[in-house]
Amino acid sequence: MVIIVKKLISSCDTNEQGDVLYAEIRRVLDRGEGATVDFSGILYATSSFVNSALVPLLDAMTLDAVKSRVRFRGTLPAVADMIRSRLTFEASRSHAA
Amino acid sequence: MITVSLPFGLKVRPVIDALHLSGVNIQSPGPEICFDFSQVSFADPTGIVLLHNLTRYLSSRGVRVFYSQLAGLSSALRFMDDIGFFEDHLGRRLHAGSRLRPTTLRLREVHQSDVPTWINTMFVPWVSVCSNHPERSLGMLGVCVSEIFNNIRDHAGTDVGSIFGQWFPNIQRLRIAISDMGAGIPATVAATRPDIAPEMAILTAFQLGFSTQSQPRNRGAGLDYLVSKVCRELGGTITTYSGGRVVHADESGRLSPFSALLTDVGYAGTLFDIVMPTGTLVHDPQDVEVDVW
């Protein structure tokens, strides 16, 4: 299932915008499907956005599971960098704890 | 009326000192303040943003703010006129021929809800033209600005900040000043870490993973991102003024407090002074999309 971010929210700046994307990803995953999140048209994503949109996935699955069930496309460098750094750091932090 | 004789160089510390010399405390400023521009010969982005915010703040508290000695229109005043400073505060430009220069952004007071639009339609296109980098490679700069405004909203107790940017083509450097009139980082950190000294509070706020949890979902990543990208990746610097303290992040990302405090005039807010070379921004012209993993 492809989730087009630009159809859900106008930008990826805030926790609240992240909540919207998280709910959509969760809905897809709960149906047992994989999600492809399409960031086309999005220039950047903040840490607050990723903290709400993607980091909560780590509460229910490992980083490897997130990688296999949630794919990304249309990610410009600043978007890809934030997703990668946030998920990697939070996964290592929860693993350390 | 209290008259504040603004300094020769309009920068943060001299402006604060000028307020102090005039006996002004911005938390109890009196009914009228006049800023005298007769000595101002140089206007630095940080001083401009601070004075812009200060005027707004005082006006919002019912203080009548006046500007004097504007007739000479020095090069500094002309510069401030070009970026809209006097238009914002006096309702008119000082000189009919004043216009925005290609090397400057217009001075803005930006509300949190307007930040994404401002970044996408004003800031990034302007940097793109100045630096000759495609907009798609400048998302990192958008993150930096948005992170600061998220920080203002979450920690400063306000949802508005003032921002100004200047491009220096001869040295290929971009300078951005962003300021709020909020509670300041030391006071915010002290709410959860009362044992911590103000300078340490600012240093701690930059650590990845540290959060005051003023918003439950904060994870302490925003300010670390700034240092990681602006300093370590691009070779820029960040100077943070907050709660009367000053902390500098050098080109390697090393954070160190300045020993000299700002004079206490009741200004607790935060001001970020970001200087970054744009020659170190990299982009692959073919690269419109990168793999996350």
Whole-Å distance between the termini of chain A?
33 Å
Helix-strand string of chain A: EHHEHHEH
Number of strands of chain A: 3
Largest chain interface and its two residue counts?
A-B, 33 and 33 residues
Summing up helix and strand content along with how strands pair, one would put the structural category of chain B as: alpha/beta
Instruction: Specify the overall morphology of chain A.
Output: globular
Outline the biggest β-sheet of chain B: 7 strands, antiparallel
Number of helices of chain A: 5
The overall pLDDT of chain A, averaged over residues, is: 94
Distance between the termini of chain B: 62 Å
Protein model, in words:
The complex is a heterodimer of chains A (97) and B (293). Chain A has helices spanning 5-8, 15-30, 47-53, 63-69, 77-96; strands at 2-4, 35-38, 70-73. By secondary structure, chain A is mainly alpha-helical. Chain A has a three-stranded parallel sheet with strand order 1-2-3. The termini of chain A are far apart. By secondary structure, chain B is an alpha/beta fold. In chain B, strand 9 and strand 10 form a beta hairpin. Chain B has nine helices and twelve strands. In chain B, 47% of the residues are buried. Chain B is globular, with a radius of gyration of 19 Å. In chain B, the strands form three sheets. A seven-stranded antiparallel sheet of chain B has the order 6-7-8-12-9-10-11, sandwiched between helices. Classes of the chains: A mainly alpha (97), B alpha/beta (293).
Question: Which labels suit this protein?
Answer:
heterodimer, A: 97 residues, 3-stranded parallel β-sheet, 5 helices, globular, B: 293 residues, 12 strands
